[in-house]
Specification:
By secondary structure, the protein is mainly β. Helix content is 10%, strand content 42%. It contains two helices and 24 strands. The strands form six sheets. Strands 1-2-3-4 form a four-stranded antiparallel sheet, with no helix packed on it. Strands 5-6-7-8 form a four-stranded antiparallel sheet, with no helix packed on it.
Length: 313
């Protein structure tokens, strides 16, 4: 009798252990290949409303309160994945990482608490999981780490109101890490370096090392919202009335691409730069595009636009 009870107990324990092992294995987030990026620098600098991965476009649908959708690059077969207002969308492996903005949340129970934070879900929109519940900015996935700006406050459960800084959280969700107390915009990430425009001490182009947490000035000048693409760095120049400029990276001379004062821009896969022209004359406000060298500028749409996101189409 004791022998049978012992065998039964051992079998139950074995089943429990097996279930626990299976739960751990299937809940584990696989690592991404080296060099993985969840979105482009240009899109991240424009709220990360679109990203294209493996022949699918994941986007915040402006016609549906910013809900997370997926579609083909030709805009066919659009489907809703998450019914929340999202931005800073990053996709890699089997998961979508995004920021949920509760300021426009239309859920009936949203009044019960703030929903703002970093979330993860499957490519089908299932299994939504909050990785950090707090307001953040400029989320970018590089390899297996999410980098973002975060404003530490006592209200958010931090020890003190220490201001804006660069933070990270690994995709396995092991807690946030403070990397820098300086405002570092994590959009251009390559080989462990984050290239960004200085804000406090200068407007140089800086490189922040994510492995050593050290910062260095790369190019002296006047930079804002830099996008590094195909051997060039494109940027708005505050000292030149926010004209769009470029220089070969990292040692080229500055080229002014347009005399227009611009509000935002993006570099597209069709070798075009799309930008919003700023003007005191309402009739001159326009979304424009030009070649990468500044030639052949043309108006795409008259009016005032922002958050210019691009995909392959």
């Amino acid at each position: 009798m004791k022998s049978k009870n012992t065998i039964t107990l051992a079998s139950i324990i074995a089943v429990i252990v097996l279930i626990m092992v299976l739960v751990v294995v299937f809940s584990r987030i696989p690592e991404n290949p080296a060099g993985t990026l969840g979105n482009t620098a240009g899109n991240i600098l424009n709220k990360g409303l679109f990203t294209e991965v493996n022949g699918k476009v994941y986007f915040a649908n402006g016609n549906d309160n910013g809900a997370l959708y997926v579609m083909n690059p030709d805009e066919s077969d659009a489907k809703m994945l998450v019914n929340h207002d999202v931005c800073f969308i990053n996709v890699a492996g089997k998961y979508i990482y995004y920021y949920e903005r509760s300021d426009n949340n239309t859920d009936a129970l949203s009044f019960l608490g703030r929903n703002m934070g970093i979330y993860r879900c499957s490519l089908k929109g299932t299994g939504s999981y909050c990785m950090q519940k707090a307001p953040v900015n400029y989320i970018c996935l590089a390899d297996n780490t999410l980098y973002y700006e975060y404003f530490a406050t006592k209200e958010n459960g931090d020890p003190a109101d220490s201001g804006i800084g660069l933070y990270s959280i690994v995709i396995q969700n092991k807690g946030k890490n403070l990397l820098s107390e300086e405002p570092v915009v994590p959009a251009n990430i390559s080989n462990g370096q984050i290239y960004y425009a200085g804000q406090k001490k200068d407007h140089n182009l800086h490189a922040f090392s994510t492995t050593t947490n050290t910062d260095a000035s790369v190019i002296e000048g006047s930079f804002w919202n830099p996008i590094i693409s195909a051997g060039y760095v494109y940027y708005m120049n505050p000292s030149e009335n926010y004209k769009l400029c470029r220089r070969s990276f990292p040692n080229g001379d500055e080229e002014i691409l347009t005399d227009d004062r611009i509000d935002c821009f993006n570099v597209a896969a069709d070798d075009k730069i799309y930008y919003q022209k700023n003007s005191t004359e309402l009739s001159e406000l326009a979304l424009k595009r030009m070649n990468l060298d500044g030639s052949e500028p043309e108006i795409v749409l008259s009016g005032n636009f922002t958050n210019i996101n691009v995909t392959s189409r």
